[in-house]
Amino acid sequence: MRILIAEDESVVRDVARVTLEMSGHEVFVAANGCDALDIVERDHERFDLVLTDVIMPQMGGKELAAHLVSRSPATKILFMSGYTDDLLMYGDLERGTAFLEKPFTPDTLILSVNDLLAEKNPWPLPGQPEEPDCVILRRPKLTAVNFTNPQAIKTRLQVSTRSNGETH
Predict the structure, then answer these.
(1) Cα(30)–Cα(35) distance, rounded to whole angstroms?
(2) pLDDT, tens digit, for every residue of 120-143?
(3) CATH number for position 124
(4) What values do phi and psi take at 87, rounded to 5?
C-alpha cells in the first residue's frame, strides 16, 4: 500500500518510515502539511493512507486531511499526536477519527495502520463509550526500543519477522 507520512519531528518521521517500509508499504515522507500537499500535487500521487501529526508548523494535520480527502475521498487518514488529552478535551478531532497516540512502538504503528487499511472497526474499546469523540486505535505499551535510531527499529523488525514469519 502507498502511505504518506506528514510529521515535523524527524525522529518520529524516520522511525515511522522505516517501520512501514519494513512492513512492505511504499512510503513517502513530508515534514509538514504543505510539503505533503506538494508531494501529492507535484506527482499527482494517490495514497491509500496518510499518517499525519495533528499539530505541525505551516499546515497541521486536520487541514492537510481536508485537502487530501477532497481530492480523493477514499484516502484513509490516521492522525497521531503526543497531545492526546488536549485534543480530546478541546474537541480538536471529529467523532470517528482514527487516532494513534504518541509515543508509539513500531508494533503499535503496524497494527494501527493495518487495521485502518483493512477497515476494521476498532471499537468499542475497553473503557470507551459506544460512540467516543474520537477513536484511539492503540494506547501503546512502551518497550525498550531506541526510537532515536531507525536502524535499531529495522533490526528489531527483521528479527521479529524471521522468528514468526510475520511482522508484529
Answers:
(1) 5
(2) 444 444 444 444 444 445 444 433
(3) 3.40.50.2300
(4) -65, -40
Q: 138 is in which domain, residue-wise?
A: 2-164
How confident is the model over 65-114, as pLDDT tens digits?
A: 999 988 888 889 999 988 766 555 444 666 667 888 888 889 999 999 99
Q: Write the DSSP assignment of 14-81 as a string of letters.
A: HHHHHHHHHTT-EEEEESSHHHHHHHHHHHT---SEEEEESS-SSS-HHHHHHHHHHH-TT-EEEEEE
C-alpha cell at 41: 500535487
If you search the block for the grid coordinates 460512540, which residue do you land on? 131
| Grid cell locating 167 | 511482522
Q: Do 54 and 60 meet the contact criterion of CB atoms below 8 Å apart?
A: yes
Domain count, the chain: 1
Neighbours of 20 (CB within 10 A): 22
* pTM (two decimals): 0.72
Q: Which residue has the higher pLDDT, 163 or 7?
A: 7
Cα 147 to Cα 14, 30, 78, 97, distances in angstroms: 9, 19, 20, 26
Cell 502511505 -> residue: 3
H/E element, 138: strand 135-138
C-alpha cell at 69: 480527502
Place of cell 519531528: 9
